[in-house]
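## retry 2 of 3
previous attempt timed out at serialization; input unchanged, resubmitting
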Amino acid sequence: MPALAAVRARLARPEVVGHRPEPVTVTAARVVRPHRRQAFEAWAADVLRVAQEFPGNLGGTLLKPGPGSSEYHLVYRFRDDAALAAWERSPQRRAALERMQEMVDGERVSRVSGLDSFFTRPSQPGPRWRTTVLTVLGVFVITLGFQLLVTPHVSSWPLPARLLLSACVVVLLLGYVVMPALTRAFRGWLHPGR
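## retry succeeded, writing output
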């Protein structure tokens, strides 16, 4: 019975039972007053630098508006909700937000975590057909590799088991490996004019 108690204790540990923390992406869209654009850009660079010093920060960037727009997008990522919460509750962030208020006329904040950030459309998306083409390419490459490398070894499995394995492999590789690499490699093609 000591072995059973050890297994129960192991399963009760939060990292085994609980959810694994996922990265969180926050996008703050702000309409900046035309005469305050330069000050806002300096403010944003400072905020990103300060946020980068916080534990769990995975980076950030400022997306500048296109022609005829005054809407800036400040995008930053943290390792998990706890790291983001530490930044959001910090006195440094509160002070920065107070300094920013007189520079903007409006603000929208959105937050996504885990795979949701892959499926959330960017603020200024390129043509949707390009994303579709890239996704089909990713699924094709993964499926071809699966058929050549894995299917011969599981051909004796029942069809539902083979399909489940295939679906798991495709979704996991697509979301965590292939699409992040493809979207980085084809960033200019996916979002022309950025």
